[in-house]
Specification:
The protein is built from 19 helices and 20 strands. The protein has about 500 residues and is of the alpha/beta class. The longest helix has 14 residues. It starts with 6 loop residues before the first strand and ends with a helix. The structure holds S-adenosyl-L-homocysteine. S-adenosyl-L-homocysteine binds next to β10.
């Protein structure tokens, strides 16, 4: 055995929304060498693992397994015995209907140390995410977690007489395909056919769905709506309409699918804002931001900073790239005496991360307005260094020079079109399943039209500014909403307004 001791962590991944993973679960994943995960685990949960970790999908619950239980056990134990940290990641909580006893037995038999990290089980998530108080005063003073899926090899069938008399809420897991059977059995044992029932599918996910019915109608409802797992079925008074507080699907963009097309490192800000409003957000970057092909003009410009009056930033990428390069060899004193202009709040905020404050931010966030704000400076012959991308508008340089300024430009990052879109995104777009596509610059506008093509006719476009809308219009695409102010928050507000929210 190796001197580093391997260990197995049985970790609950939570009900679906990756943010519902516990901090301990995230720590275990970050430290894992090997992750064995169930089919239903959200990829964003797996994203906590290191890039070098080996990720193994072991199969889907209740269906044909990719790996047998014996194979899973052998993998867990084998990797741990070779000194590795192994995470066995299960949906929800690792103890609830998760066949964990067999796994623990195998780990213990091999003498491998282990730890169990709880997760939010589906039944508890449903209480919060569908707003169903599972316990409630006298009406529900107990909760039973019940499996609707009786295993063929199980000697004892469920005690339906006992369940029918249970003084509280019944929550069925794996009950979709077997509803006809268990509902009839409960009724036969004396439970009222009028007992309120709530079926909640895909709890905590952007397409969560709740259907209310009664014990008498639950099987028919499932058939009629063609409901498929995963779903929970809550049986009891608490499932009555009057007691539901479904804040989750009441959020303003719930049920809307939005495609964000910003560069990968810039997408999260917009994704977070849209997701918080309930949208199902997909990301397909239309452009890629990278370092300039040649740093020497940037280094040269940095050396000449003392002879300049103004540094002018037209994007937060420019701020990050230029200051990042400067700080590799110098410190912020290199900027002493310079004045700084930023095109909008995004660049100004990025500057503030470097403890710099923009002296000028125009009221309207576009090149023309920035040139206007700097007009008197240009007129007195000030020397400007424009920090820019490999492509972009020439308007600022032209106007400042036209007003009498001395203008130099330096390319600090490259912006390239992404070559191809994910096939999954294209097929969802073609099927009309994407409600909105965000377009946050003219460069992105041109790339999006090329990448997504005719699919764009089956969705709506929201643009960051009139310039961006103009770039789309030139290519034959009209926008349905336009930001004002020209910021990410402005774009989100425009989208909400267009949805009548
Ligand atoms: N260990 C898991 C349960 C695994 S059994 C837990 O603690 O949640 C699989 C069943 O869990 C599914 O058939 C379904 O009934 C339920 N389930 C899991 N995730 C769910 C979700 N997001 N929405 C609704 N039901 C879910």
């Amino acid at each position: 055995m190796s001197h580093t001791r391997g260990k197995v962590f049985l970790v609950g991944g939570g009900p679906g929304d990756p943010d519902l993973l516990t901090l301990r679960g995230a720590q275990c994943l970050a430290a894992a060498d090997v992750v064995l995960y169930d089919y239903l685990i959200n990829p964003n949960v797996l994203a906590h693992a290191r890039e070098t970790a080996e990720l193994i999908c072991v199969g889907r619950h209740g269906r044909d397994r990719i790996l047998s239980q014996d194979e899973i056990n052998a993998l867990m134990v084998g990797h741990a015995q070779s000194g590795k940290q192994v995470v066995r990641l299960k949906g929800g909580d690792p103890i609830v209907f998760a066949r964990i006893a067999e796994e623990i037995a195998a780990i213990e038999a091999a003498g491998v140390p282990f730890e169990i990290v709880p997760g939010i089980t589906a039944a508890l998530a449903v209480g919060s995410y569908a707003g169903i108080p599972l316990t409630q005063g006298d009406a529900a003073s107990a909760v039973a977690l019940v499996t609707g899926h009786e295993r063929d090899d199980k000697p004892q069938p469920l005690d339906y007489a006992g369940l029918a008399r249970f003084p509280g809420t019944l929550v069925f897991y794996m009950g979709i395909t077997t509803a006809e059977h268990w509902a009839a059995a409960l009724i036969a044992e004396g439970k009222s056919p009028q007992t309120p029932v709530a079926i909640v599918r895909r709890v905590s996910m952007p397409d969560q769905q709740t259907i209310q019915c009664t014990l008498a109608t639950v099987a028919a409802e499932i058939k009629q709506h063609k409901l498929r797992p995963p779903a929970l079925i809550i049986v009891g008074d608490v499932a009555r309409a009057a007691t539901l507080h479904d804040w989750f699907s009441a959020r303003p963009l719930f049920g809307k699918r939005v495609l964000v097309t910003r560069a990968a490192h810039q997408a999260p800000e917009l994704v977070t804002q849209l997701s918080a409003l309930g949208a199902d957000v997909l990301v397909q970057p239309a452009i890629e931001i990278g370092p300039p092909d040649d740093w020497s003009p940037v280094d040269h410009a940095i050396k000449r900073l003392p002879g300049l009056d103004w540094l002018v930033f037209s994007s937060s990428n420019g701020v990050r790239s230029f200051l990042g390069r400067l700080l590799e060899t110098r410190d912020l004193r290199a900027l002493a005496g310079l004045r700084i202009a930023a095109i909008g709040p995004g660049s100004a905020e990025e500057l503030s991360r470097y403890h710099l404050r923009a002296d000028v931010v125009p009221e309207e966030y576009r090149a023309e307005a920035l040139a206007e704000s700097l007009k008197s400076e240009a007129a007195r012959g000030a020397r400007f260094l424009l920090i820019r991308a490999s492509r972009g508008r020439e308007v600022l340089a032209e106007q400042l020079a036209g007003q009498g300024g001395h203008v130099e430009q330096v390319v600090v990052y490259t912006s390239r079109d992404v070559a191809t879109a994910e096939p999954e995104i294209l097929s969802q777009l073609a099927a009309g399943k994407i409600d909105w596509v965000t377009v946050t610059s003219s460069a992105i506008a041109r790339s999006v039209v090329r990448l997504l093509g005719e699919g764009l006719r089956r969705t709506r476009l929201v643009s960051i500014s009139p310039i961006t809308s103009g770039a789309l219009a030139e290519l034959g695409h009209e926008v349905s909403a336009e930001a004002k102010p020209y910021t990410m928050a402005g774009l989100v507000a425009a989208l909400l307004a267009a949805e009548g929210k």
